[in-house]
Amino acid sequence: MRFNVESILLFAVMATGCVNQASSRTPSLNAAQINAAIPLAVLKVAQLIPTAEAVTTLPPTSIKWIQYHIPQSEQYPTENEADYITVKSMTRYALFNESDQYELSDSNTHEEINKLYGTSDCNDWTHTDSSARWGWRYNSNNSQIELFAYVEFQGNHLYQHNQVPDAVAAVGKPIKLAIVMNTTSPSSYPSQLFSSGSDSEAIVGAHRDPSTGDGVFETVLANPFPGSYDFYVNDVKVNTLPRACNHPLAEGPELLPFFAGGKIGAPHEIMIELSPEVNKSEVKN
Predict the structure, then answer these.
(1) pTM for this predicted structure
(2) Domain 52-282, what fold?
(3) SS3 sequence, 238-257?
(4) What pLDDT, in 10s, does the model give residues 194-230?
C-alpha cells in the first residue's frame, strides 16, 4: 500500500471535522484547514514506519539463531569470524532482547548508530569507503530500538537525514531485514540523506547544512550515482541509498555486529541474534 502527502493530509483534515466526509466531491483545502491538520498528518506519517509488529513472514520455527556477544567496554563481538561473500542481496532476521536497551554516559554518543550486519562492496576490503549495512540504536527517550539503512560512500556515512529511523524493532520479536545491490541508480531518492563525512561537498548532489555543518544530499541529483542499494523491512522497501559502483555482485568480507558508542564501547554486555542468510527470492520487489 502506498501513501502520498496529499492523501495523508486530506485524511487528517477530514479527521479534524473541517471537511464533510460524506461529500462525494474531492474537497479543496484552504490554508486554515491545512494548518489545523498538520499535527495529525505528522502523526499518521509516523504510524507508517514499519515495526516488528508488522511481520508477515515469520522465520522457520526450526531456525538456529546465531548469537553475537559484545562484552562491556568493547565494540566487536567475541564471535568475530566473518565469511568472504559474493552476493546480489542479503536477507537475515534479527532478534533483539533486553540487553540491547542501554544508557550511555556521554550524551553526544546517544545518536550514534550501531551496526547489525552487511557487506563490503566495490572492491573495498576495509568497508570504510564502500559498504552497505543495517544499523540500529536504542532510543532511551521513547524506549524504542530504531533501525537505519546505512551506507559508506567514498568515506562518508550516509543514512536518513534528521535521524528518522527506517523502522522500529520490538524486543523478543523477529524482524526481517534485507539489502539488495542494484547496478543502476535512480535520478532522485526518497528523502534527504545525512552524511557525517568530512568531504561531503565533493560528492555529487551534496551541500552543507548551514545550521549544523552536516552534509545533506539533495533529493534530486544532478548526476545519478553508479549504483544503489534497496533496503527492505519485512518484505517492504523502506529506503534507497547511493552505491559507489555498479558491479552486479557485492564481493568482500561479511560485516558483523559492531557497537558504536564513541570510544567507550558497550556500557554492558550486548547480545544480538541473527538468522543465517535467507533466500533473496522471498523479497518482494
Answers:
(1) 0.73
(2) Jelly Rolls (2.60.120)
(3) EEEEEECCCCCCEEEEEECC
(4) 555 444 433 444 444 545 545 554 444 445 678 999 9
